[in-house]
Design goal:
Blueprint (H helix, E strand, L loop, with lengths): L19 H6 L4 H9 L2 H11 L11 H6 L14 E6 L8 H8 L1 H15 L3 E6 L4 H16 L15 E6 L9 H8 L23 E5 H5 L1 H7 L1 H6 L8 E7 L6 E6 L4 H8 L9 E5 L19 H6 L8 E6 L4 H15 L5 H18 L5 H13 L9 H15 L1 H10 L12
Parallel strand pairs: 1-2, 1-4, 2-3, 5-8
Antiparallel strand pairs: 5-6, 7-8
């Protein structure tokens, strides 16, 4: 990860993350101390609102506004709680930014959750962690123990009168748990199906109580906002959304990895300057700009700033900011088939369009990739994209699944047609033309 004087870094060390003492020596927990001693909870929410921080999990909803929806009570009964949940169930293909933060600087997340809990009035919190992140679980557990010993968690934190319990919950592992209401169901020990909204979790979430669910990277901005102030935070990207973003790149690029850059860094900067461009002998054919559930963009889009508005205007979504790169020697049909297989497997099966539509799309793509397709299959894929689109499904899984398919049909239609006309994949036989 590029070492910049921006949020989130704190000299991330994936080999040996800093102890609490070393983290504090580097400025750690100063943001939490400032938040708890210089701001009321309501003022802390307004501070985050004013910062312009948006959710880094994919949706890009303003964080402070989300917090403001939590109802406040002067006093709570014994059975009343407000919960803070960190969504660390990072299962979006092509995305591994949260893993970096969880393994490399776990105390930063704990500090961030102390700040967020104080702001929303939460007395209990959970880190909902992807089950496969074993190393992250070990390091978070160690950091939690250190924080409890140092009174950054528990009762009367640092003598401020604020109480906050924080627990690690290791997920059984389903992609759908990344959806906040499915995550809440899983945390309650139920099947991980998304809930109907309203009511929204901010009003009735975990165990029917007010709940805020935020992504790892979103939360990790908080210590820096409170430690350095709003103007400093916004100065990193004055022409774009506030703050910085961890961008990634995978695929056949020269140097796959993660880099922290000012929000709105152009796609080409991430791909060429950070990832070193394409591997020798390969050319860029297209890319998914924000993980597997976003629309393809093309080489002509390399100047597009990677923020929410500009990527949307280009026809895709910023999503998680992780580039999945398609080169000119890879088959786009096979790539989309691989993604649809994943989404079909991970569907919770709650609604018909997702439960039946994603496997049907897989079958059609398999026919085409194997050279057994017909031109009518392309028309059927277009119909499936409409069948599974926004507003026609219980949650956003199916619309996200068809985004790469829909855009591939539009941008790489000739590839689909050649599969059908040649009766095999032209990339596997070296016959790709056009």
């Amino acid at each position: 990860m590029t070492a910049l004087s921006h949020p989130l870094t704190y000299q991330v060390n994936l080999t040996s993350p800093k102890t609490l003492s070393a983290y504090c020596d580097d400025g750690g927990y100063q943001g939490a101390r400032i938040a708890l001693t210089q701001f009321s909870p309501e003022q802390a929410v307004e501070q985050v609102k004013a910062s312009g921080l948006k959710g880094r999990g994919g949706a890009g909803f303003p964080t402070g506004m989300k917090w403001s929806f939590v109802p406040r009570k002067a006093t709570k009964t014994e059975n009343e709680n407000t919960y803070l949940v960190c969504n660390a169930d990072e299962m979006e293909p092509g995305t591994f930014k949260d893993r970096l933060l969880l393994e490399g600087v776990p105390h930063q997340l704990i500090e961030a959750m102390v700040i967020a809990a104080y702001a929303i009035g939460a007395n209990k919190g959970y880190i909902f962690l992807r089950g496969e992140y074993h190393l992250a679980a070990q390091r978070i557990t160690h950091a939690l123990n250190e924080a409890k010993t140092a009174n950054w968690l528990g009762d009367n934190i640092q003598g401020t009168g604020f109480n906050f319990e924080l627990h690690l919950h290791t997920s059984a592992g389903r992609y759908i748990c990344g959806e906040e209401t499915a995550l809440i169901n899983a945390l309650e020990g139920k099947r991980a199906n998304p809930r109907a909204k309203p009511p929204f979790p901010q009003v009735a979430g975990l165990f029917g109580q007010p709940t805020i669910v935020n992504n790892v990277e979103t939360l990790c901005n908080l210590p820096h906002i409170f430690r350095h102030g709003i103007e400093w935070y916004q100065s990193h990207a004055p022409e774009s959304d506030a703050g910085t973003k961890i961008y990634g790149a995978c695929g056949r690029v020269a140097k796959p990895g993660l880099w922290e850059l000012p929000m709105g860094a152009p796609i080409g900067k991430v791909l060429n300057d950070c990832a070193g461009g394409m591997q020798s002998g390969l050319k860029l054919k297209g890319l998914l700009p924000g993980g597997a559930s976003t629309d393809f963009l093309l080489p002509q889009h390399l100047d597009v700033p990677m923020d929410y508005d500009h990527v949307a205007k280009a026809g895709s979504r910023l999503g998680t900011g992780g580039l999945i790169v398609l080169d000119d020697k890879q088959c786009p049909v096979a790539m989309v088939l691989n993604l649809l297989r994943f989404f079909a497997q991970e569907s919770c099966g709650w609604c018909t369009p997702c439960r039946d539509g994603t496997p049907w799309a897989v079958q059609l793509l398999e026919k085409i990739e194997q050279g057994k397709g017909q031109l009518a299959d392309i028309d059927e894929l277009y119909r499936l994209c409409d069948f599974m689109w926004i507003g026609k499904t219980h949650c956003a899984l199916a619309p996200g699944a068809v985004e790469p398919l829909r855009s591939a049909l539009n941008y790489f239609n000739d590839d689909f047609v050649q599969h059908i006309e040649l009766h095999h994949c032209p990339y596997h036989h070296g016959e790709r033309h056009g």
